[in-house]
Amino acid sequence: MQRQTAEVPEESEPDYRFTLANERTFLAWLRTALSLLAAGVALDQFVPQLGADGVRTALGVGLGVLSVVAAVAGLVRWRQVQRAMRRGQALPVARTVVVLAVGLAVVAVGVCVLLVAGG
């Protein structure tokens, strides 16, 4: 029985403009993560009149979790895109944006409910 080995496509250095664009996108992911974290802390610490402590804390933690997801997803995405560019492959599909969008929508609905309920 012969053992088959998967061929790794040959890698080449992509145009530096694409590499820098990929890096800027990664930095945007990090800015988003930092913004989500700041929003979570602000929601928990600076808006005491908005609902019960536990609800406010839960929404803040939700934003913190989304922050971690954004930071990790940005790093993973940057590596996947860089690898694809070096190998001349199609860019990978970005599925994490759906998770972030849904998570942020859930937190936003929670905040809106608290605002309508009179805090």
Question: Low-confidence stretches at least 5 residues in length (pLDDT < 50)?
Answer: none
Taken from the alpha-carbon principal axes, the silhouette is: elongated
The total count of helices amounts to: 3
Helix and strand succession? Answer: HHH
Estimate what percentage of residues fall within beta strands. under 5%
Radius of gyration: 20 Å
Number of domains: 1
Mean model confidence by pLDDT: 89
Sheet with most strands: none
Find the count of extended strands (DSSP E, 2+ residues).
0
Q: Which class of secondary structure composition applies to the elements?
A: mainly alpha
How is this structure best described in words?
With 119 residues, the protein is mostly helical. It has one domain. 73% of the residues lie in helices and 0% in strands. The chain contains three helices and no strands. Helix 1 (16-46) packs antiparallel against helix 2 and helix 2 packs antiparallel against helix 3 (96-116). The longest helix is centred in the middle third of the chain and has 35 residues, at 53-87. The radius of gyration is 20 Å and the shape is elongated. The termini are far apart. The model has no long low-confidence stretch (mean pLDDT 89).
Short synopsis of the structure:
Keywords: Cell membrane, Membrane, Transmembrane, Transmembrane helix. The protein is mainly α and 119 residues long.
Primary descriptors:
single chain, 119 residues
Write the layout of secondary structure elements.
Layout: H1 16-46, H2 53-87, H3 96-116
Helix pairs in contact: 1-2, 2-3
